[in-house]
Amino acid sequence: MHNIIKLPNGIEVVNIYNSSPLIKLCFLFKAGSTQDMEGKYGLAHFLEHMTFNGTRKRSKIVIENSLSRLGKRYNASTDYEQTYYQIDVLKEDVDSAMNLLSDMVCNSVFSRVQINREREVVIQELKEFSDIPEEILFNERFSVLYAGHGLAHPVLGFEEDLDSISKADFYGYTDQYYCKNNLRAIFVGNISQEEAVYLTQKHFSCLPDGNETAMGKAPFNVGYKFIKRNLNSSIVNLCFNSYDTAAKQVEQIVLQSILEERIYREATNQSLSYSPECLGEFLEGCSLFDINGRCSNENVNKLIDVFISGINDIKAYPVSDHELLRAKKSIKIGTLDSFYDNSFAFASAIGRFDINDIELDYKDKLNDIDNLTKERLHNLAMDIFSVVNLGYFVMGNKINYYPFDKVQNMLM
Asked: For the chain: N or C, fewer Cβ within 10 A?
Protein backbone atom coordinates (compact mmCIF):
# COMPACT_ATOMS: atom_id res chain seq x y z
CA MET A 1 0.00 0.00 0.00
CA HIS A 2 1.43 3.38 -1.06
CA ASN A 3 -0.10 6.67 0.06
CA ILE A 4 0.91 10.26 -0.60
CA ILE A 5 -0.51 13.17 1.34
CA LYS A 6 0.41 16.84 1.01
CA LEU A 7 0.26 18.59 4.36
CA PRO A 8 -1.16 22.12 4.70
CA ASN A 9 2.38 23.41 5.32
CA GLY A 10 3.56 22.04 1.95
CA ILE A 11 5.47 18.93 3.04
CA GLU A 12 4.59 15.72 1.18
CA VAL A 13 4.41 12.51 3.21
CA VAL A 14 4.74 9.14 1.46
CA ASN A 15 3.71 6.10 3.48
CA ILE A 16 4.68 2.70 2.05
CA TYR A 17 3.22 0.26 4.52
CA ASN A 18 4.42 -3.28 5.01
CA SER A 19 4.76 -5.62 7.98
CA SER A 20 8.49 -5.15 8.49
CA PRO A 21 9.52 -3.90 11.96
CA LEU A 22 12.50 -2.24 10.26
CA ILE A 23 11.50 1.30 9.28
CA LYS A 24 13.26 3.04 6.44
CA LEU A 25 13.10 6.83 6.50
CA CYS A 26 14.05 9.00 3.55
CA PHE A 27 13.86 12.79 3.62
CA LEU A 28 14.24 14.17 0.12
CA PHE A 29 14.65 17.81 -0.83
CA LYS A 30 13.80 18.85 -4.37
CA ALA A 31 17.08 20.68 -4.87
CA GLY A 32 20.53 19.53 -5.90
CA SER A 33 23.56 20.68 -7.86
CA THR A 34 21.37 22.28 -10.55
CA GLN A 35 20.60 24.95 -7.94
CA ASP A 36 24.29 25.68 -7.24
CA MET A 37 25.21 29.32 -7.77
CA GLU A 38 27.62 30.21 -10.55
CA GLY A 39 31.15 30.14 -9.16
CA LYS A 40 29.97 27.94 -6.27
CA TYR A 41 29.58 24.66 -8.12
CA GLY A 42 29.62 21.74 -5.68
CA LEU A 43 27.74 23.72 -3.01
CA ALA A 44 24.73 21.36 -2.69
CA HIS A 45 26.97 18.32 -2.22
CA PHE A 46 29.29 20.18 0.19
CA LEU A 47 26.20 21.21 2.19
CA GLU A 48 25.03 17.59 2.42
CA HIS A 49 28.38 16.76 4.05
CA MET A 50 28.18 19.74 6.39
CA THR A 51 24.82 18.70 7.89
CA PHE A 52 26.70 15.92 9.74
CA ASN A 53 29.16 18.40 11.29
CA GLY A 54 27.21 19.97 14.13
CA THR A 55 24.05 21.89 15.02
CA ARG A 56 23.11 24.42 17.69
CA LYS A 57 22.26 21.53 20.04
CA ARG A 58 24.60 18.74 18.89
CA SER A 59 28.30 18.64 18.10
CA LYS A 60 29.73 16.50 15.32
CA ILE A 61 30.71 13.85 17.88
CA VAL A 62 27.22 13.82 19.40
CA ILE A 63 25.67 13.37 15.94
CA GLU A 64 28.05 10.49 15.17
CA ASN A 65 27.31 8.82 18.53
CA SER A 66 23.56 9.26 18.04
CA LEU A 67 23.70 7.66 14.59
CA SER A 68 25.72 4.80 16.06
CA ARG A 69 23.16 4.22 18.84
CA LEU A 70 20.41 4.13 16.21
CA GLY A 71 22.18 1.28 14.38
CA LYS A 72 24.61 3.03 11.99
CA ARG A 73 22.40 2.33 8.96
CA TYR A 74 22.27 5.72 7.31
CA ASN A 75 23.14 7.41 4.04
CA ALA A 76 22.95 10.76 2.28
CA SER A 77 23.39 11.72 -1.34
CA THR A 78 23.19 14.66 -3.72
CA ASP A 79 22.42 14.55 -7.41
CA TYR A 80 21.37 17.09 -10.01
CA GLU A 81 17.82 17.65 -8.80
CA GLN A 82 17.57 16.29 -5.29
CA THR A 83 19.35 15.79 -1.99
CA TYR A 84 18.26 13.06 0.36
CA TYR A 85 18.97 11.78 3.86
CA GLN A 86 18.10 8.20 4.75
CA ILE A 87 18.24 6.02 7.83
CA ASP A 88 17.18 2.48 8.82
CA VAL A 89 15.85 2.14 12.36
CA LEU A 90 13.73 -0.10 14.55
CA LYS A 91 10.22 1.19 15.06
CA GLU A 92 10.88 2.29 18.65
CA ASP A 93 13.65 4.60 17.37
CA VAL A 94 11.71 6.40 14.62
CA ASP A 95 10.95 9.43 16.80
CA SER A 96 14.58 9.76 17.92
CA ALA A 97 15.88 9.38 14.36
CA MET A 98 13.55 12.06 13.03
CA ASN A 99 14.47 14.39 15.88
CA LEU A 100 18.14 13.96 14.97
CA LEU A 101 17.74 14.34 11.20
CA SER A 102 15.44 17.35 11.46
CA ASP A 103 17.97 19.05 13.75
CA MET A 104 20.73 18.35 11.23
CA VAL A 105 18.89 19.88 8.26
CA CYS A 106 17.24 22.74 10.18
CA ASN A 107 19.92 23.85 12.64
CA SER A 108 23.40 23.24 11.23
CA VAL A 109 25.86 25.90 12.40
CA PHE A 110 28.58 25.62 9.72
CA SER A 111 31.55 26.52 11.92
CA ARG A 112 34.64 27.74 10.10
CA VAL A 113 36.76 24.92 11.53
CA GLN A 114 34.33 22.23 10.33
CA ILE A 115 33.92 23.90 6.93
CA ASN A 116 37.68 23.83 6.36
CA ARG A 117 37.97 20.22 7.51
CA GLU A 118 35.06 19.04 5.39
CA ARG A 119 36.32 21.03 2.41
CA GLU A 120 39.34 18.72 2.32
CA VAL A 121 37.01 15.70 2.34
CA VAL A 122 34.84 16.85 -0.59
CA ILE A 123 37.89 17.93 -2.62
CA GLN A 124 39.42 14.50 -2.08
CA GLU A 125 36.17 12.88 -3.17
CA LEU A 126 36.19 15.07 -6.29
CA LYS A 127 39.75 13.98 -7.11
CA GLU A 128 38.90 10.31 -6.67
CA PHE A 129 35.90 10.54 -9.01
CA SER A 130 37.98 12.54 -11.48
CA ASP A 131 40.10 9.43 -12.02
CA ILE A 132 37.12 7.28 -13.07
CA PRO A 133 36.77 7.26 -16.89
CA GLU A 134 32.99 6.78 -16.84
CA GLU A 135 32.59 9.78 -14.53
CA ILE A 136 34.77 11.93 -16.76
CA LEU A 137 32.76 10.97 -19.83
CA PHE A 138 29.44 11.53 -18.06
CA ASN A 139 30.43 15.03 -16.92
CA GLU A 140 31.94 16.00 -20.27
CA ARG A 141 28.80 14.78 -21.99
CA PHE A 142 26.45 16.91 -19.89
CA SER A 143 28.72 19.94 -20.31
CA VAL A 144 28.19 19.68 -24.09
CA LEU A 145 24.52 18.65 -24.23
CA TYR A 146 23.29 21.16 -21.62
CA ALA A 147 25.78 24.02 -21.92
CA GLY A 148 24.51 27.12 -20.13
CA HIS A 149 22.21 25.16 -17.78
CA GLY A 150 22.77 23.92 -14.21
CA LEU A 151 23.06 20.37 -15.52
CA ALA A 152 26.26 21.30 -17.36
CA HIS A 153 28.47 21.27 -14.26
CA PRO A 154 29.36 18.18 -12.18
CA VAL A 155 27.46 17.43 -8.98
CA LEU A 156 30.78 17.44 -7.09
CA GLY A 157 31.71 20.80 -8.57
CA PHE A 158 35.20 22.17 -9.22
CA GLU A 159 38.08 22.49 -6.77
CA GLU A 160 38.44 26.25 -7.27
CA ASP A 161 34.73 26.73 -6.52
CA LEU A 162 34.84 24.49 -3.43
CA ASP A 163 37.74 26.59 -2.13
CA SER A 164 35.57 29.71 -2.27
CA ILE A 165 32.44 28.38 -0.51
CA SER A 166 31.68 30.06 2.84
CA LYS A 167 29.22 29.86 5.72
CA ALA A 168 27.04 32.50 4.05
CA ASP A 169 26.72 30.30 0.95
CA PHE A 170 25.45 27.38 3.03
CA TYR A 171 22.87 29.52 4.80
CA GLY A 172 21.77 31.05 1.51
CA TYR A 173 21.18 27.61 -0.02
CA THR A 174 19.35 26.15 3.00
CA ASP A 175 17.16 29.23 3.41
CA GLN A 176 16.04 29.02 -0.21
CA TYR A 177 15.87 25.29 -0.89
CA TYR A 178 15.67 23.34 2.39
CA CYS A 179 12.07 24.40 2.89
CA LYS A 180 8.72 22.73 3.59
CA ASN A 181 7.49 22.96 0.00
CA ASN A 182 10.60 21.14 -1.22
CA LEU A 183 10.48 18.23 1.27
CA ARG A 184 9.13 14.76 0.65
CA ALA A 185 9.21 12.55 3.77
CA ILE A 186 9.11 8.83 2.95
CA PHE A 187 8.30 6.04 5.43
CA VAL A 188 8.73 2.38 4.46
CA GLY A 189 7.71 -0.33 6.91
CA ASN A 190 5.23 -1.06 9.69
CA ILE A 191 4.13 2.51 10.31
CA SER A 192 0.69 3.98 9.66
CA GLN A 193 -0.05 7.06 7.59
CA GLU A 194 -1.35 8.81 10.71
CA GLU A 195 1.93 8.18 12.53
CA ALA A 196 3.96 9.30 9.54
CA VAL A 197 2.01 12.56 9.25
CA TYR A 198 2.19 13.24 12.99
CA LEU A 199 5.96 12.66 13.20
CA THR A 200 6.65 14.76 10.10
CA GLN A 201 4.66 17.68 11.46
CA LYS A 202 6.28 17.30 14.86
CA HIS A 203 9.87 17.31 13.65
CA PHE A 204 10.03 19.20 10.35
CA SER A 205 7.95 22.29 11.15
CA CYS A 206 11.35 23.88 11.84
CA LEU A 207 11.90 24.27 8.10
CA PRO A 208 11.19 27.67 6.52
CA ASP A 209 8.11 27.96 4.29
CA GLY A 210 9.77 28.89 0.99
CA ASN A 211 8.70 28.05 -2.55
CA GLU A 212 8.89 24.72 -4.33
CA THR A 213 11.87 24.57 -6.69
CA ALA A 214 10.88 24.98 -10.32
CA MET A 215 13.42 22.92 -12.26
CA GLY A 216 12.43 23.72 -15.85
CA LYS A 217 13.60 22.01 -18.99
CA ALA A 218 17.23 22.25 -20.02
CA PRO A 219 17.68 23.18 -23.71
CA PHE A 220 19.29 20.24 -25.51
CA ASN A 221 22.34 20.91 -27.67
CA VAL A 222 23.24 18.48 -30.43
CA GLY A 223 26.95 17.84 -30.10
CA TYR A 224 29.96 15.61 -29.66
CA LYS A 225 33.31 15.38 -27.90
CA PHE A 226 36.37 13.14 -28.13
CA ILE A 227 38.21 12.84 -24.81
CA LYS A 228 41.84 11.73 -25.05
CA ARG A 229 42.93 9.47 -22.18
CA ASN A 230 45.56 6.76 -21.97
CA LEU A 231 43.19 3.83 -21.42
CA ASN A 232 43.46 0.12 -22.19
CA SER A 233 40.02 0.28 -23.81
CA SER A 234 37.74 2.99 -25.17
CA ILE A 235 34.28 4.05 -24.02
CA VAL A 236 31.68 4.84 -26.68
CA ASN A 237 28.42 6.66 -26.03
CA LEU A 238 25.60 7.58 -28.40
CA CYS A 239 22.75 9.39 -26.69
CA PHE A 240 19.46 10.85 -27.83
CA ASN A 241 17.23 13.51 -26.36
CA SER A 242 14.03 11.67 -25.43
CA TYR A 243 10.80 11.90 -23.44
CA ASP A 244 10.00 12.35 -19.77
CA THR A 245 6.30 11.62 -19.32
CA ALA A 246 5.34 8.47 -17.43
CA ALA A 247 3.83 6.68 -20.44
CA LYS A 248 6.77 7.50 -22.70
CA GLN A 249 9.22 6.31 -20.05
CA VAL A 250 7.59 2.88 -20.04
CA GLU A 251 7.81 2.75 -23.85
CA GLN A 252 11.45 3.84 -23.76
CA ILE A 253 12.42 1.24 -21.15
CA VAL A 254 10.91 -1.55 -23.24
CA LEU A 255 12.59 -0.20 -26.40
CA GLN A 256 15.91 -0.06 -24.52
CA SER A 257 15.58 -3.72 -23.59
CA ILE A 258 14.93 -4.81 -27.19
CA LEU A 259 17.66 -2.66 -28.75
CA GLU A 260 20.20 -3.69 -26.12
CA GLU A 261 19.62 -7.36 -26.88
CA ARG A 262 20.09 -6.78 -30.61
CA ILE A 263 23.25 -4.75 -30.14
CA TYR A 264 24.66 -7.15 -27.56
CA ARG A 265 24.16 -10.11 -29.89
CA GLU A 266 25.92 -8.40 -32.80
CA ALA A 267 28.76 -6.90 -30.74
CA THR A 268 29.56 -10.23 -29.11
CA ASN A 269 29.32 -12.06 -32.45
CA GLN A 270 32.01 -9.73 -33.77
CA SER A 271 33.99 -9.95 -30.50
CA LEU A 272 33.85 -6.15 -30.23
CA SER A 273 32.39 -5.55 -26.78
CA TYR A 274 31.31 -7.68 -23.86
CA SER A 275 29.14 -5.06 -22.22
CA PRO A 276 27.04 -2.87 -24.56
CA GLU A 277 23.98 -1.51 -22.80
CA CYS A 278 20.99 0.77 -23.37
CA LEU A 279 19.94 2.96 -20.49
CA GLY A 280 17.53 5.79 -19.80
CA GLU A 281 18.18 8.92 -17.79
CA PHE A 282 15.03 10.63 -16.57
CA LEU A 283 15.33 13.96 -14.80
CA GLU A 284 12.94 16.87 -14.70
CA GLY A 285 15.47 18.94 -16.60
CA CYS A 286 16.31 16.33 -19.22
CA SER A 287 15.71 12.83 -20.53
CA LEU A 288 18.15 10.72 -22.54
CA PHE A 289 18.24 7.38 -24.32
CA ASP A 290 21.82 6.10 -23.90
CA ILE A 291 23.70 3.46 -25.86
CA ASN A 292 27.04 2.65 -24.20
CA GLY A 293 29.87 0.19 -24.74
CA ARG A 294 33.54 -0.53 -24.14
CA CYS A 295 35.85 -1.93 -26.76
CA SER A 296 39.53 -2.07 -27.71
CA ASN A 297 40.97 1.25 -28.85
CA GLU A 298 41.26 -0.12 -32.39
CA ASN A 299 37.60 -1.17 -32.65
CA VAL A 300 35.78 2.05 -31.77
CA ASN A 301 34.48 2.70 -35.28
CA LYS A 302 33.39 -0.93 -35.66
CA LEU A 303 31.39 -0.67 -32.42
CA ILE A 304 29.82 2.58 -33.65
CA ASP A 305 28.85 0.69 -36.83
CA VAL A 306 27.06 -1.89 -34.67
CA PHE A 307 25.26 0.80 -32.66
CA ILE A 308 24.10 2.67 -35.77
CA SER A 309 23.10 -0.54 -37.53
CA GLY A 310 21.00 -1.57 -34.53
CA ILE A 311 19.30 1.83 -34.44
CA ASN A 312 18.56 1.83 -38.18
CA ASP A 313 17.29 -1.74 -38.06
CA ILE A 314 14.85 -1.02 -35.27
CA LYS A 315 13.56 1.95 -37.28
CA ALA A 316 13.32 -0.02 -40.54
CA TYR A 317 12.01 -3.36 -39.30
CA PRO A 318 9.20 -3.88 -36.79
CA VAL A 319 9.85 -5.40 -33.40
CA SER A 320 8.86 -9.07 -33.45
CA ASP A 321 6.13 -10.51 -31.23
CA HIS A 322 8.76 -12.63 -29.54
CA GLU A 323 10.99 -9.62 -28.78
CA LEU A 324 8.09 -7.59 -27.42
CA LEU A 325 6.85 -10.41 -25.17
CA ARG A 326 10.31 -11.09 -23.79
CA ALA A 327 10.99 -7.39 -23.10
CA LYS A 328 7.60 -6.93 -21.42
CA LYS A 329 8.23 -9.86 -19.07
CA SER A 330 11.68 -8.58 -18.17
CA ILE A 331 10.41 -5.06 -17.39
CA LYS A 332 7.46 -6.43 -15.41
CA ILE A 333 9.80 -8.48 -13.22
CA GLY A 334 11.98 -5.45 -12.63
CA THR A 335 8.93 -3.33 -11.78
CA LEU A 336 7.56 -5.83 -9.27
CA ASP A 337 10.99 -6.33 -7.73
CA SER A 338 11.43 -2.59 -7.19
CA PHE A 339 7.97 -2.06 -5.71
CA TYR A 340 8.36 -4.91 -3.25
CA ASP A 341 11.90 -3.93 -2.33
CA ASN A 342 12.26 -2.52 1.19
CA SER A 343 15.55 -0.74 0.58
CA PHE A 344 17.24 2.64 0.39
CA ALA A 345 17.19 2.38 -3.39
CA PHE A 346 13.43 1.93 -3.37
CA ALA A 347 12.85 4.82 -0.97
CA SER A 348 15.00 7.06 -3.12
CA ALA A 349 13.09 6.01 -6.25
CA ILE A 350 9.79 6.80 -4.53
CA GLY A 351 11.21 10.20 -3.66
CA ARG A 352 11.84 10.92 -7.33
CA PHE A 353 8.33 10.03 -8.47
CA ASP A 354 6.83 13.45 -7.89
CA ILE A 355 9.77 15.08 -9.66
CA ASN A 356 9.48 12.89 -12.73
CA ASP A 357 5.72 12.26 -12.89
CA ILE A 358 6.02 8.46 -12.64
CA GLU A 359 3.05 6.44 -11.43
CA LEU A 360 3.35 5.45 -7.79
CA ASP A 361 0.98 2.50 -8.22
CA TYR A 362 2.88 -0.41 -9.77
CA LYS A 363 -0.41 -1.79 -11.16
CA ASP A 364 -0.69 1.26 -13.40
CA LYS A 365 2.82 0.68 -14.67
CA LEU A 366 2.10 -3.00 -15.36
CA ASN A 367 -1.00 -1.91 -17.29
CA ASP A 368 1.09 0.49 -19.37
CA ILE A 369 3.50 -2.36 -20.19
CA ASP A 370 0.64 -4.70 -21.16
CA ASN A 371 -0.89 -2.07 -23.45
CA LEU A 372 2.33 -1.43 -25.38
CA THR A 373 2.18 -2.29 -29.07
CA LYS A 374 4.84 -2.79 -31.70
CA GLU A 375 3.46 0.24 -33.54
CA ARG A 376 3.98 2.51 -30.53
CA LEU A 377 7.55 1.30 -30.11
CA HIS A 378 8.26 1.90 -33.81
CA ASN A 379 6.85 5.43 -33.59
CA LEU A 380 8.99 6.12 -30.54
CA ALA A 381 12.12 4.87 -32.31
CA MET A 382 11.37 7.11 -35.30
CA ASP A 383 10.90 10.12 -33.01
CA ILE A 384 13.95 9.62 -30.78
CA PHE A 385 16.63 8.32 -33.16
CA SER A 386 17.07 11.50 -35.16
CA VAL A 387 20.09 13.68 -35.90
CA VAL A 388 18.37 16.58 -34.11
CA ASN A 389 18.46 14.56 -30.88
CA LEU A 390 22.00 13.18 -31.17
CA GLY A 391 24.98 13.30 -28.83
CA TYR A 392 28.19 11.42 -29.68
CA PHE A 393 31.07 10.86 -27.24
CA VAL A 394 34.21 8.73 -27.17
CA MET A 395 36.97 8.42 -24.57
CA GLY A 396 40.19 6.59 -25.40
CA ASN A 397 43.77 6.97 -26.56
CA LYS A 398 43.06 7.25 -30.29
CA ILE A 399 41.82 10.23 -32.27
CA ASN A 400 40.80 8.70 -35.61
CA TYR A 401 37.14 8.19 -34.72
CA TYR A 402 34.30 8.74 -37.14
CA PRO A 403 33.70 12.49 -37.38
CA PHE A 404 30.39 13.77 -36.09
CA ASP A 405 28.96 14.58 -39.50
CA LYS A 406 29.65 11.02 -40.68
CA VAL A 407 27.77 9.57 -37.69
CA GLN A 408 24.89 11.95 -38.41
CA ASN A 409 24.82 10.80 -42.04
CA MET A 410 24.88 7.14 -41.01
CA LEU A 411 21.59 7.55 -39.16
CA MET A 412 18.63 6.80 -41.43
From this structure: N
